[in-house]
């Protein structure tokens, strides 16, 4: 099983911002036009909040505990009962356990990439990228994230970005991980990237530019940007140049529009609501996700913690005791809040990491384990109180039908009203199938 140094942190250096291509500023998933979607669904589209447990939380301490095993497998934690017969969760998720009749669990996700970069790309794009290694950086050859695929196939021009990612890029030192933007679809479909903790008192929209430009500066520089672009267009009339110019203009519109800016005014949220989510990065990021969906954003990816938060090769139990309660409070409050506001019917919530952890405790931790892991799904037609799939007695391998990240991606696109098998075009105008998975039907039909 491959290992490599973990020197993760949040945020972007200037060098990394250049590597990303300033996608947080220049590409907000707001194309003015795009090719028609092939084989598109006619269902009413929904929104998706992807809660990504970056670094890979252990399935045995969360959604698939195995309490009847010896300590070297079951770990130090106990379990807690749920309202669903026969279903128990790890003891540090009591709030989610009490709400097990509001969501479904899939316990047989599986793939073959035991490194973070390849696995993360696979989970947040729904497509396996050939040649992705642990040291592979973000690239315009990557597959697009879900919000980018949606923006390409169902463009909008209402001043609201199709997708937002928060509150950090996933990076390992100077290496920005692949699969975090629109990839081969181009920067005009990139998500709007938030790079600051919503729990900070100083958090506000004009602090959220990867380049540090605030709204007033952005307005002032729009004229300069037009002049620079005019000069560039006089030098080249390429289609790519025109697309970048369109993307910049859309970025200016979005970043200065009241409809988007209002969602970031966290101080206007009632104190009691903020308290329920938890006054920490996890909780406030999920509250911001709800506010963004309420403002019309279709896809929000909330990266729960820095990469190393869930990557527990050692010291797993003390660390999980610290991390699980904020996650428990935040996701529980999100499900309650969406339900109370009538948004859960049209918003799918997915909680998943890049893979699972080894069934056996090794050096007081659990290593990377892609053959079997779990995910939580709620809303947008998902049958509540259901467990899809069963792992073996140690949660090492699926005992029933396994589901791949491709299938998870197909399920996300299905919730968004997009045919997962739609054809898109890459940077060389070649046809590419967006996703090759199949919808996880038991989440919806019980089949």
From TrEMBL:
<dbReference type="Pfam" id="PF07394">
    <property type="entry name" value="DUF1501"/>
</dbReference>
<protein>
    <recommendedName>
        <fullName>DUF1501 domain-containing protein</fullName>
    </recommendedName>
</protein>
<dbReference type="InterPro" id="IPR017850">
    <property type="entry name" value="Alkaline_phosphatase_core_sf"/>
</dbReference>
<dbReference type="InterPro" id="IPR010869">
    <property type="entry name" value="DUF1501"/>
</dbReference>
